[in-house]
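Treating backbone geometry as a discrete language has practical consequences that deserve illustration. The amino acid sequence and the backbone structure tokens for this protein are reproduced below.
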Amino acid sequence: MEWFREHAWESWLVLAVLLGVAELFSLEFVLLMLAVGALGGSLTAAFGGPVVLQALLAVVTAVAMLWLVRPSMARRLHAGPSLTLGHEALVGQQGIALAPITAHDGQIRIRGEVWTARPYDETLVIAEGATVDILEIRGATALVHPVPELDA
């Protein structure tokens, strides 16, 4: 026990490093905040503070980090662009009409696949060969709208 009192700052530092390494396996930022608290205890010990003050400062620092810093770090880590999979990934893409598209019949080619298509506006008739925007997918049917063409 006497060894720990003589080498208190080193003990806190070793604890901080161990917690930091353990954080690499959890990625929840809890152990990282505890490691920062241990660094606070290490600094207090390095400046000659008593053991009670070292422990108190380590706990206060860790709790403050968990309460103030961890939520924003976790939010930034888990934030990012959403991943769209399946047919939802086709919305916003363009396709080519393989046949005239009416409210009752039509097909388009999207990324090399043939899909049943209907005009988003049921009163439209889209000509064969027209480029269309996919606005929605309902079941296995793409609801499309023709892309306006500029007259050259």
About this structure: The first helix runs from residue 2 to 6. The longest strand covers residues 131-138. The mean pLDDT is 90. The chain is about 45% helix and 20% strand.
